Amino acid sequence: MKKLTAQQILEKFPETKTVNEAWLADIICPRCGGRKTFEIKGTVLIEITDADIDSCSGDSPDWNLNSSCRCASCHLTGRVKDFHFRGLDSLIKNQTH
What integer is the mean pLDDT of 10-36? Predict the structure, then answer.
């Protein structure tokens, strides 16, 4: 099945009004239209001593379009690229202005 375009996703989920401008920019679940929470498998550098774990050490987690991804709402799984629709947030901004 061919992946939908950002415009087609908005036609499928016309109630979509939330604009994501940071970590989840252009990300939406193609099954349920969820945009709020995703579980994305990434790597992060952690500092470990015998007494303590300092997660992230100030670094951001490393993930990309090929990272595993799961919608927290409907549990659809795939790769980030399956949930990424280039230009989606720009289209939403244009619709709401």
Answer: 95
